[in-house]
Every structure is written in structure tokens, then in C-alpha cells.
Amino acid sequence: MGLSVVGLTGVCGRQDSGAHKSTAATAFASGTHMVRRLSRRSRRPQGARRPQQARPPPSPPPPAAALMDSPSQPPPPAEGGPAAGSGAAELPRLTVTQVEQMKVEAKVADIYRVLFGNAPNANSLMLELWREQHVEYLTRGLKHLGPSFHVLDANRPWLCYWMIHALALLDETPDEDVEDDIVDFLSRCQDKDGGYGGGPGQLPHLATTYAAVNTLVTIGSERALSSINRENLYKFMLRMKDTSGAFRMHDGGEIDVRACYTAISVASLVNILDCELAKGVGDYIRRCQTYEGGIAGEPYAEAHGGYTFCGLVAMILLNEVDKLDLPSLIGWVAFRQGVECGFQGRTNKLVDGCYSFWQGAALALTQKLMTVVDEQLKSSYSSKRPPGDYACGTCSSTEAGYYAKFGFDFIKKSNQIGPLFHKIALQQYILLCAQVLDGGLRDKPGKNRDHYHSCYCLSGLSVSQYSAMVDSDACPLPQHVLGPYSNLLEPIHPLYNIVLDKYHTAYEFFSSE
Amino acid sequence: MAPSSTSSEGATDEWVPPSRRPELADVVPVPQDDGPHPVVPIAYRDEFREVMDYFRALYFAGERSVRALHLTAEAIDLNPGNYTVWHFRRLVLEALEANLQEEMNFVDQIAECNPKNYQIWHHKRWLVEKLGPGIANKEHEFTRKILAMDAKNYHAWSHRQWVLQALGGWETELQYCNQLLEEDVFNNSAWNQRYLVITRSPFLGGLAAMRDSEVDYTIEAILANPQNESPWRYLKGLYKGENDFLMADERISDVCLKVLKNDSTCVFALSLLLDLLQIGLQPSDELRGTVEAMKNSDPEIADADLATAICLILQKCDPLRINYWSWYRTTISSQI
Q1: Alpha-carbon distance B234 to B214, whole Å?
Q2: Is A380 close to B243, i.e. CB distance below 8 A?
Q3: Cα(A471)–Cα(A468) distance, integer angstroms
Q4: Does residue A389 have a pLDDT over 70?
Q5: What value does the mean pLDDT take over residues A470-484?
Q6: Residue A354 appears among annotated catalytic residues
Q7: For B35-39, what is the mean pLDDT?
Q8: Chain B: residue nearest A34 by CA?
Q9: Pairwise CA distance, residues B162 & B200, whole Å
Q10: Spans of all domains in chain A
Q11: pLDDT above 70 (res A4)
Q12: Chain A residues whose beta carbon lies within 8 Å of the beta carbon of residue B241
């Protein structure tokens, strides 16, 4: 999700080396398949439609072409056939979408080909998470950012969150004085009338409020948690509420599903969510679910991974998730994982590492929603009523902490089924295609690293590693973690994207407030 | 409202720092309050820092003046993502009763260089609301221009949809969708727009009136590119919430079978057939025959019922989604 503009502990012991063999083997098995799929898909349009492909292959052949020379694959229909050489004008030309997709597939295939040419023990090295480099890159950002970062000058709490959360996933905490500096800095971003802006003196904004609060919760000290003025925060949120029930980002700002999620997430987390804030939000979000099954930023816009996560989570926190058509949402998200092994954000768009979280976590959440899904399937088959077609519930409870419980209870629930995405394939994409050798993670090969992608690639990696366990905080088995077991990250609370123990500390703190 | 000659726009050598501008001589710049130990500190260039210091001075003083307007243009030029500057600019524009058509030209210029920015498009909405229906066509032309550079720009599409619904301009929209899909039939944003048009355009009679011809159009697109997911999703969308009609339209199962004849592992075709069976479609002999043929080649699924067999086939030919299909299979046994 283009959040660029304010858009939007306790590892259970490292495993011994006996685990490596099996993980590498799993990776190899699943990955071989991926390469074959990739080659098949990327071959067709090239061979069939590009006039220059009719020429004898240059030597040495380009890597992508070499990869395609698998005897198990049938030749593309046009190659050497009657269409080649004659009537080239009749052949369908490649569209922009196809060309861009092929370029990415070729780059990814290059990387995976190296993996499968390696001996299994070399794979384990290649599949390592470069912790030290990432920690260094993230820690450095906290202390210094170059002049080109001026375009993120209205996103500084986001920068804090991306770095601090990514570090927490890696089980790293900055020095205590740096943590205190962050608390001081964010207090300067806190508006006197509530909420946090993108920098000191800037207007309060819901997305930077989310980033600031999540950062403070991740720091987790009494000083950090008590620096949030909850009374004013509540007033700020009420001011941001539109008559439709949805939220706007800031005074006079845009209304969308991102604003709804950031408001509901923060309000739930610091235990200020009540009927007043909650009413009407669910109906707005329901109107944003599209014919494809995913959720859009606004009614009628295109289904999108970032908004799908935001909408789904807000509905869970509001206890209104039954208003969404969950089977069609699941069907849409499951199809966003592609031959590159990572997720795309929208149908027929390119893979991007950040959707490892937005899409991966959305699917992981549905592992705990199977009771609702089954109900919806039953009712849609029997009564022909489309799932999610329910009258709006009315808020009745005034009990303190009523809403905060939904986030707390959700994480205690067991996963009723295994993950609906390919968790090993996803980890393979993150480790091999998104990692940058000098530290940091990126969208895809050929792109630069940044803090946003570092945060969301690692968040997605964590979700993926823990997705096969029945309980959210249970320690994954070696075969669930691709690469060495030391790749294992901290578990998160996927509704807030906060490291799980940090969430629990904050929950305790704000329940007693 | 283009910035004055003192702005950063135009030749850089002409740029005069705010501290040396006579019209700002009485303003005391306000530095950013980053505290003694800032975190995520940005090494601002002098130009950026100075403009922002002067902006802060006028913003905190609430000065709604021409010089404030010029300074906001400069700050926006340096960082179009600063929503506080945009917000203040709107207050100033209102106070000055500025020419909003000129303001639209200003924001359009910035949008062309920064087409993926929330603030710019939000500012345009604010202007469109003020300028009213007369501006609809110009807005549609503008989004066309942006979409010609990137036909999937999410912000541009959202803006276009909002203008359509607020001010109209539907007359040629279906044609525009046709054009974009002719250029790139994989453009899912164009399919999504098509869905808006056929369901919401006041000229087309709504989904019920359009469904029949849309099914034909979509099937043609599927047959031309069976691996294109967009029309498959669109086809199902045409019958959203209307399972009985979906089942009754023989063209739906026909297109699946036709595609499977050429490519027996087409995931989208198998998946749609499965959906049809799930909602109660009575399988035709042809459908039964097609699936039986696939079953025969695989002894593991010989005894399975039709829907289960399709799931098992999908588990094999779509292994990336093996967990999804095996879960899906469990929902069959719980229904039927």
C-alpha cells in the first residue's frame, strides 16, 4: 500500500543444526516447482509473440531463456509453426501488463535458479536472514537520514514505527536513551488537542497517530505508554468522524478505509473505543468490499491488499466481521500469491514484498474466523442470500473495555485451520528477492531498500513463520521456518502489527487506566 | 496560483532565500521544535529548512495573506506530502477568495510530477466541490492524461470515480473502458471501472439491463486470454448475489468447458466450475464427462464426487494454493 504519504519477545530458544537439513529440503522441493511454473508462464508470450524470438538464440542464451529449456515443457505453440515468420502482424501484441510481468518473472527466476543449482547446505546460507545488516540499517536510520528524506518530512512517526517495529521483530531494542529520545520526540508531535502529527507542530493525523502509538507501545516503558494523552486522543478521533460513520485522516482531510483502520486500531489498543467511535464504520467498510472479493479504499474503487487488511481488521476489532463476505475475500486474497512466490496488491499487478504482510496477514487472520466463514458458506448455499448481507447491528454495550476485549480475545483464539497461503514460498520470496545484502528489505529485485518495505517484509515473514501453529504464540517447528531456524522472528499481534509481548504489556497498562 | 518570482520554481539561480526577501522582512522564522536529541532527524538542505521555518511562522500566526499563499506553494513544491501545508493553503485560499481555476492549474501541474500522492488528489476534490459541474469534463480529461502514463494509478481512478458520481460525465465512460481494455485487457483497474459504469451509470439501466451483453463481452475476453484472471472475476461479479441466475446461465459453464478443452489445468476455469457446483448446479453430461476424463487419468481421485474431484485436481495443478484448495475441499463435505 502506498503508505509513503502518511498513508498509512521471547523467542523460544534457537534450534540445533539438525533442523537445517529438513528445512533446506522443503525449500528445495517447493522451490523447484516454483521455477518450473515461472518458466512455463514466462515462456509462452515471449516465444509466441516476439518476432525476434524466431531468430536463432544468441549465444550464450539469456539466463531466462536457458531456464526455460526444460524438456518437460511443451514448445510454445507458435515457435517453428506456421505462424512464425509469416503473418507476424496477426499475432496478438504483448500488453504493458504482460511485458512488466515478464520482466519481473525473469529477474525472480534468475535468483531462484541460483538457489536450485546449489548444494543443499549452500542453500541454507542463501536462505539466511541477514539480521546484523538489517539491525545496522534500521538503527542508523534512527540517528540520521539524508537530505532526500525530506519527502518523508510529514511521516516522521512512521519512520519511527517502521524502524522500531522492524527492530523489535528482530528482537533488538535500541539503547534506553534512544528510546527516551523517541518518546520525547513523539511528545513534540502530539497535538495539544489530541492526536499526533507527521512532525513537531504539524496537524494531527490519524495515520501518524497510529504510527506514533504503535511505536510507543513497542517501546513499552511506563514513560512511553503514559505519554499518550488518551482523553484528548479520544476527542481528536471524534472530531475526525464523518457523518457517514467513516473517519477522515485529519481536519478537512480524506475519508477512506485506511483512516478507519488507523482510528479503530489505535482506539482499541489504548482502550478508548466505544459506541460513539464505532458506529457506522462497519457499514462504510462493508460498502468498500468489491465484486472481486477484496476491499477497496472507497466504495467502488478497486480491491487492494492494503485496504483489504485495513478493512478486515477494523471489522474484527468492531466485532462486525460477519458483515463482510469472507469466502469471497479469502478467495481473492489467496489468488494474490503468484508465481514469484510473493503477493501482489491487486489483480494483474506486480509482486511487492510489502504485501507479504498486508495480504499474508489478512489470510492468516481468517484462520481464526472459520466459524463465521462456515456459517456464511452454509447460508449462501441454502438460502441463496449472499454472505455479508446483514442488517447493521446497533451498538448497545457501554461496558468499559468492551471493545478492547475483541483484540485481546482474538489473539487467544486458536487457528482453526492451517494457513491458506503457501508459507514456505512466501518466506522464499522475502529471503531471496526482498533482502538487500547491505541490510534492509525491498519491494522486488531491481528496487532499492527502504524502511517501509523493511518493516512490512519482516512483518510478513513473522506472520508466515507462525502461521502453521494452532496458538498464536506457540513456537514454530523447524519445517515451518525456511532457512536456518535462527531466521525465526518475534511473533506479532496481527491486528495491530505489534510484537506480541509488547501488546500484552500495553493491554495490561491500558486496562487499568 | 503560481508562486511568485521569489519561489523555487523556475531557474534555481533566481531563487532568493526567504530571509533576503523584502516582503518577508518582518517575519521571524520559527525553527522546527525537534528537541535536544532528535530521532529520525532529516539532514534538510538549507533551502528546505528556511522555507519551512518561514512557513511555520506564518502558519502558527494564522496569517492568511498573499505572501502566505506563495510560501505554501513553495513548501508544497519541496514536499507535496505535507498535508499541514495543503490544509493551511485551503484556509488562505478561502480567506483571499482566490481564483480557484488558477489553483486547479497549479495543483494539476504538481499532480503530473507526483501522481501518487494523497494530498494532491484530495486538494483536487476540494476544488472540484467548489467549482461545480462545469469542471467535470476537464477533470475527466486530466485523469485520462494521468492514466495514459500509468493506467493503474489508484489515486487517479478514485478521483475519476468520485467526479463521475458527484458531477457526472458518464456518457463516454463505457467507451473509455473499452478503449483501455483494448489497449491492455489485463488492466484490472479498467475492468473495475467497467463494473462501476455498468452498475452505476444513469444511462445504461444498471446491472440487470447490462448483464447479458456484458457476459458475452467478458467471455470473448476470456477465450482470447484464458490465463487473464480479471475477466474471470468480472464474470462472477456480474452475478454477485444472484446465485440462481449464475447457475441458470449456460454460457458460464460452457466457457469453462471450452477453456478446459484446450488447457485441462486452467485454474480459473476449474475454480469457476467448482463454484457453480457448490451453489447447486446440476452438472451436464459434458461437464461430468470432462471431469471424469481428468479423474480417469488419476487413480487417486477416481472415487471422488465431482466437486471433490475438481478440488483434488486443483491441488495438483495449482500447488501454490494447495492449502487453499484442500481447505476448500473440506467445505464441500460440510455442505453437501
Answers
A1: 9
A2: yes
A3: 9
A4: no
A5: 92
A6: yes
A7: 96
A8: B320
A9: 12
A10: 18-85+92-122, 175-335
A11: no
A12: 386, 389
